TrEMBL record:
SUPFAM superfamilies: Terpenoid synthases. It comes from Fopius arisanus. The gene is CH038_1. It comes from the Eukaryota. This is CH038_1 protein. InterPro entries: Isoprenoid_synthase_dom_sf, Squ/phyt_synthse.
Amino acid sequence: RNDFENYLCTLLLPSALRGPAFAIRAFNVEIALIQDQTSETAISGMRYNFWNDTLKKIYNNNPPQAPVPLELHRVLKTFKLSKHYFQRLLDARWRKWQAADFPDLESLEKYSEETVSPIYYLLLEARGIKDVNIDHIASHLGKAQGITNLLRSAPHHAQKRVCVIPQDLLMKHGVPTESVFRGEMSKELSDVVFEVASRSHQHLEKVKTIIHSHEFM
């Protein structure tokens, strides 16, 4: 329900890979929902701490008796998945919660990589693939998907008075943050969105270039 598109994509994976893929995606959904479940910093901090402790317990063979931790622990008995990738996903969400806005496109891009690319790295580990060029693809693909996800989520966040559009681009095009919160469309805002979307497109083009220049695809 909360990640239907990636659920459908996971169904297209080889059957042996679906188990770990669903567990990885479920973990990501759980930590992504923290920001939507409360606006209280203290409560959010408690939930992030819960998942931080949960991750440690999972890797120490003592998972909490809850569906996602138990499933992830079960998967780890068969697949060697690096803890630090899960930790990156969690830490990136927490840093974003504390920082609120993105000051520039580079910070949005970095957040996109940190919240999407580790999922691809984990899927590659589950598949037993170790290739620096494929890792490079996963990095760019994560940035492209992450940037797109943030653009798509902009209206949802704006309703909660959270702006995920880079502040420097809003200033560059003369778009007040308040107008974003009010959902006011303008040519200037369209130009901002186009500039952000163009960065996502650049990463997709880079992926195509890497694929075409190597024989593994």
